[in-house]
């Protein structure tokens, strides 16, 4: 039994145990409420430095130059923008927050409006250490990008002796990223405790009725993912790549369902590369899009972030303008790129987004009880994104070389 499967089973058991305690002994159940907050705080604390070191390491390690990387960036940004737009559109039309009203006390903020200019003001750090202290993801990523390219510029003009020292420094950056990731993996194993506390609290206060709302929330989130895969990816394959969907799925079924079963698009990567070989995609395109681009092809996480963010805001009755939603969408894309590859990456990324936008994260604890369903759909979708993105890039490269369809 894998660690991921064990964690899912513990989450389900924690959900049932918490609900039983909340129904049987409501007053006792409420004593466990702080557990959920503690776990989410730990996740946010470990994820923030991980994002900094992951972005910095990526800039220093992947010295990909030329038009190929630019093409990959364009492809991933188009797909990510469509994914987040679908998530926000469905959330605006169906208002999933109405099914999560029982979370209103957890999401309640000091204001009933989220203003674009207030959000922008929060992204301006007063010092270098403030983004780390405040868990502010956007200024942290900007700092990592700035430091990374400055490091590359300085490295380019060093003599062999000092160059060796800088390479040693890059090794320590990779080690720091690995340490933060390992720490986060340990903390993620505490999620069942958060689920137990949240389940106990909500059943003590509202009974079993909220779980119907959770089911409706899950169904709408999965609907958004299905729309993106059925229409966006299929349109790319049929209209641009010029490959039949039957041929694509002949080879794509194995990696996407394997990613679904193990809940990881990263673990499924060897099968993804084999499928791309069978589909005639060059290693030049597949290595860049599926391997180097593993931190970019996260449409499943991005759509989930946008949809859930707006659902939580709606549940509390907070108003969020379209301009604020657009800025939050950028936030979601950046956060997803920073935590890719770690367990429960969607939840970790959303925790950072909520914290960066000044929205309390406590309500996430109960949503974790059903996230194991959505998480597998995210892995399915991210692997699908790796496959389609590689095929788009391969076709674009061929067109640039004047090759026929």
Explain the overall architecture.
It contains 18 helices and 2 strands. It is mainly alpha-helical. It has a single domain (66-174, 208-400), classed as Orthogonal Bundle (Proton glutamate symport protein). Strands 1-2 form a two-stranded parallel ribbon.
Give the topology.
Blueprint: H1 3-24, H2 26-30, H3 33-61, H4 67-94, H5 104-107, E1 113-114, H6 116-122, H7 130-134, H8 137-156, H9 160-188, H10 191-206, H11 210-241, H12 245-262, H13 269-278, H14 283-291, H15 299-316, E2 319-320, H16 322-338, H17 345-356, H18 364-400
Parallel strand pairs: 1-2
Helix pairs in contact: 1-10, 3-8, 3-9, 3-10, 3-17, 4-11, 4-15, 4-16, 4-18, 10-18, 11-15, 11-18, 12-13, 12-18, 13-14, 13-18, 14-18, 15-16, 15-17, 15-18, 16-17
Largest sheet: 2 strands, parallel
CATH superfamily: Sodium:dicarboxylate symporter
- Cα Rg: 22 Å
Mean pLDDT: 82
The beta-strand count equals: 2
Strand content: under 5%
* Shape annotation: globular
User: Unreliable runs, pLDDT <50, ≥5 residues?
Assistant: none
Number of domains: 1
Q: Strand order within the widest sheet?
A: 1-2
Reported by name, the CATH topology is Proton glutamate symport protein
């Amino acid at each position: 039994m894998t660690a991921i499967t064990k964690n899912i089973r513990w989450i389900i058991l924690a959900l049932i145990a918490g609900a039983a305690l909340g129904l049987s002994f409501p007053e006792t159940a409420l004593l466990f409420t702080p557990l959920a907050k503690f776990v989410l705080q730990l996740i946010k604390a470990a994820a923030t430095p991980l994002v900094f070191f992951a972005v910095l390491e990526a800039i220093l390690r992947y010295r990909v130059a030329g038009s190929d990387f630019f093409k990959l960036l364009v492809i991933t940004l188009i797909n990510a923008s469509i994914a987040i737009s679908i998530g926000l559109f469905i959330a605006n039309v169906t208002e999933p927050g109405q099914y999560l009203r029982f979370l209103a006390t957890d999401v309640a903020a000091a204001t009933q409006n989220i203003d674009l200019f207030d959000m922008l003001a929060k992204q301006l750090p007063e010092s270098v250490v403030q983004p780390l202290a405040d868990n502010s993801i956007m200024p942290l990523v900007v700092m990592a990008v700035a430091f990374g390219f400055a490091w590359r510029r300085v490295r380019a003009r060093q003599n062999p002796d000092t160059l060796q020292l800088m390479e040693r420094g890059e090794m320590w950056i990779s080690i720091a990223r690995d340490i933060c990731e390992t720490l986060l993996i340990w903390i993620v194993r505490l999620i069942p405790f958060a689920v137990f506390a949240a389940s106990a609290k909500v059943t003590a206060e509202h009974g079993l009725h909220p779980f119907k709302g959770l089911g409706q929330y899950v169904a709408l989130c999965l609907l958004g993912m299905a729309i993106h895969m059925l229409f966006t990816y299929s349109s790319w394959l049929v209209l641009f790549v010029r490959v039949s969907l039957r041929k694509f799925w002949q080879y794509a079924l194995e990696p996407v369902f394997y990613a679904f079963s193990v809940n990881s698009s990263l673990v499924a990567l060897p099968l993804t590369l084999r499928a791309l070989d069978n589909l005639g995609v060059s290693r030049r395109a597949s290595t860049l899009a599926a391997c180097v681009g593993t931190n970019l092809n996260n449409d499943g996480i991005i759509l989930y972030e946008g949809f859930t963010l707006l659902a939580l805001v709606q549940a509390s009755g907070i108003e969020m303008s379209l301009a604020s939603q657009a800025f939050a969408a950028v936030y979601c894309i950046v956060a997803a790129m920073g935590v890719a590859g770690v367990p429960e990456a969607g939840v970790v990324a959303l925790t950072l987004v909520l914290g960066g936008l000044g929205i309390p994260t406590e309500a996430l604890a109960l949503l974790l009880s059903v996230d194991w369903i959505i998480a597998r759909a995210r892995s399915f979708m991210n692997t699908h994104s790796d496959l389609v993105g590689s095929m788009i890039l391969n076709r674009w490269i061929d067109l640039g070389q004047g090759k026929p369809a």
